[in-house]
Amino acid sequence: MVYSSIYLFKNLFVMPTKVNKTNHIGIRATNAEKLDWELKAHSCGLKTSQLARDLLNKYSTGYASDKKSRQEFNLQVARIGNNLNQIARWANTYKGAAEVTQVVASLARIESAMLELRSGAG
């Protein structure tokens, strides 16, 4: 009975079969880059090729969605910048009529919008 439960437990954690890696990819690097990569790999307990393979396998470009997100973010920042420029122009034009409370309230809204964008982009 004990033997069978150990056997079942052992089979839950079966290691995957080794896959031979037959293709080679070469990367040109300076001596400093090569040394840096080797040190990083060694600090993780890996060979340089293992570190590179792990990093490349986990890397996702997400290019199309990232590009659209960046464009939307830039558009929002540009709109906020335009609002700020309009407030500054108005305050400079109507120095006597510019009420400090209106300007401060507008600047507070701009600051709030910038903080919201920053938290959404991070």
Helix vs. strand class: mainly alpha
Helical amount:
over 70%
The helix/strand order is: HHHHH
- In DSSP terms, counting alpha (H) and pi (I) runs of 4 or more, how many helices? 5
Q: DSSP strand (E) fraction? A: under 5%
- pLDDT averaged residue by residue: 79
Counting DSSP E segments of at least 2 residues, the number of strands comes to 0
Biggest beta sheet attributes? none
Written description of the protein model:
With 122 residues, the chain is mainly alpha-helical. It folds into two domains: 2-58, no CATH class; 63-121. The chain has five helices and no strands. It has helices at residues 2-12, 31-43, 48-58, 63-93, 100-121. α2 packs across α3 and α4 (63-93) packs antiparallel against α5. The mean pLDDT is 79.
What can be said about this structure in brief?
The protein has helices at residues 2-12, 31-43, 48-58, 63-93, 100-121.
Structural topology:
Elements: H1 2-12, H2 31-43, H3 48-58, H4 63-93, H5 100-121
Helix pairs in contact: 2-3, 4-5
Q: Characteristics of this structure?
A:
122 residues; mainly alpha; 2 domains; 5 helices; 72% helix
